[in-house]
Amino acid sequence: MKDLEFFRNATLGQYVDSHSRVHALAPLTKYLGLFALAAPALASRPAYAALAVMALGLLVALAAKVRPAFLLRGLKPALPALALIMALQVLLSWPGDESAVLLRLGPIDVTLAELANSARIAARLAALMVTLGLFTATASESQIVHGIEDILSPLSRLGIPAHRLALVVGIAFRFIPILAGEAELIVKAQASRGADFGSGTRNPVRRVKAWLPVLVPLMLRALERSESLVEAMEARGYSGGLRSRLASYPVGSGEKALRAGLVLFAVVSVILVSRAPSPFGTWL
Amino acid sequence: MAFVDVRGLFHRYPGSPVHSLSDVSFQVQPGEYLAVLGANGSGKSTLVRCLDGLAEIESGTVLVGGLDPMNAEQLADLRSRVGLVFQSPADQLVASVVEEDCAFGPENLGLPREEIARRVASALEAAGLQAERSRPAWALSAGQQQRLAVAGALALEPELLLLDEATAMIDPPGRTGFLDLIGRLNSDGTTVIHVTHSMEEVLRAGRALVLHEGRLVFDGTPADLFERPGLESWSLSRPASLEAARRVRFAFPGFRPAGHAPEDFRDELSRLARASGKVPASPRTDVSLPAPAVSVDPPREDDALVLDKVAHEYLGGTELSRLALDGVSLRVGKGELVALVGATGSGKSSALQHGNALLAPSSGSARVLGLDPAAKGVDLKALRSRAALAVQRPETALFETCVGDDVAFGPRNQGLRGRALVERVRSAMARVNLPYADFRDRPVRALSGGEKRRAAMAGVLALDPELLLLDEPCAGLDPAGRESALALQAALSSDGRTVAVSTHSMEDATRADRVYVLERGRVVAEGSSAEVFLGTEPPPGLERPWAAEASVLMWRAGLTDAPTALDAAALADEALAVLGVAPPGGVPRGGLEAAP
Question: Which residues of chain B from 136 to 155 reach within 8 Å of chain A, CB to CB?
């Protein structure tokens, strides 16, 4: 019945309030940290480079008092998608793929290049998810929102509504647990009326059909709740116009140096990982 | 000059043939505490929205502090002087941290940072939330969240507080703290307009308005309101304190307690008993009742539901893990009506969800209708339709376009077709008073809130279950809706079905055969409602029903030999026996005063 607990593996987006020195950094610094790890993760050519970035992320997690196992568990929901990508890599062949054929299954050739590509995609995705998980574990929702505001505020002179964009992101975050909670209640209500949840059916048609009675009321509830929120915001004087902010994040000289270091690290590491030698030759 | 001035107000929702407010006029002076009552759908919430510019006025005038909510230029100023608190605590949180949420209003006013900080500090102080200022808002209890919503309104430094059923979703301890806060603010000069379904809360107000089908049908003091005949036709009821006093007065005209507390009832009774020469015995010295019992009888073979030392860890093994049940043992005998009471988060819902195998115990064991849901080969789908659960706010799960189709969802999943299906749907809808012929093809979205709840209940009853698990079936209903939900429970039980129901309301729990009191995932008291509410001291944090508390106080004062009353009618009989008057045969009709 664990499949009825909707929060179980959703570690991406969960704030872990462990009061570490990483947590105490200003939102903008955390965004730079995210950038400094995500950029090399995406740019890495061989899989081991991406894995190295991931390992670095897990080290930072230790410093932030966030358990690495917590971040790794967040990979679980992505496994089906990853399996699909890898299957496509193997099933479809690349034009001009002249690498060694490792395995021949009827019409399907499993080549070294396909295997290495799959590994690279898997490693990049894992590194990226760990990095994002680390970011959301150390930056609270309001810091994520304030960070966006701080990044975009120079652009507000160009007419870009920094605060409104930030608020949209903030509300999107707020609705994740709200919708998960609503979905859980609705699923439980329908399962109580004999719908196929938690009863272990593997028939895909039955599984899809069982979701319709959930999606319809879930959409309605999402609309109702967003309407309530809009009313609550309007009643407190929100008009989308000019406003001030209570939270401020004073930045010391040490943190300024850290910011410079993070930018430098991003540039250097991107150059390094994109040129890292591959153990499987030029193709990879 | 009146702070709120409403004259000839009409309102209609787009596409609706009828007015939701018709010709409503009233004035509110600064510093007043006004309660607004009425059935679900009578227009109370619409009225509040009209005052704050959230609903469009069709005709008439509305002025709040001299400002017109329909005038876009005055609206911002108006909203900075009016605080609005809604029903659902979670739906009005804007930011994720307590103090940032509180700051949202002043931030919108564009105030300087230092001024915002000052206002937030004093608002959180007033709401008793200073200690929580840097906590995540979602981690607060519902009662605390609702006080945060008040703090968010207070940060605007409003002259008027509008409360739209703001206590409907919080438990009794949270509610008392919330109402005390509102009372303090009112005595400091804030005008309060409080929309509520709770008749007890009306007594805190100096004045009450009643809306019925969009019209203002009463404007006067709560005392006058509850003396009126025909309260039921407005879907209202009388608070237990007034109902008991009225019943006594019917046979003993001089009975007039000074206030609404159980102590006032006892004091008036002992005054009259002394005056009429019935010298009461001296107050008892042996006043303490035994501690609550938690020993559960050994389970019987035919019990409908048995939980044996069940622990349930929600999200076990993750950072968010929470122990929802911590070794709960309970049994629901075949044909019994059992109530689970306790504060929010005490584990009532989790216990019920073990009753139809939506949750499996992390440790301990469950037996549902003689089966162990954890055993191999048990058909959970079949078991769930024999032990059916109505979740909280079950109307949120309605999904078909027409009522009849939605009610048919369950029995259709059971494999029923054709005539048998129609019969099942027809009888389920009849049970909840939604006649099949009238409501079968009614669009779900055209139903009122109370009708939606009943349609959802019909969807569960249509499974024809042996065991019914009802999670807060009365939450958010007006007194008439609540009374019909309680009557439905009783009817199901007298049919021989087993019913387990969770509730915040001790009054509702007295209607059950047996009561379990839960606290932080443990059973802290168990027994018949008389044993739990009259025979033992209540567990900490639990308040007796009003009538039971008065009955215990009368016994302690030496007026009676034992506390026996669980409701207003029984309490009145008990009081009349003390006064040596035989209870009258009939029940007093509304407004009727006995001749002196």
Answer: 136, 138, 149, 152-153
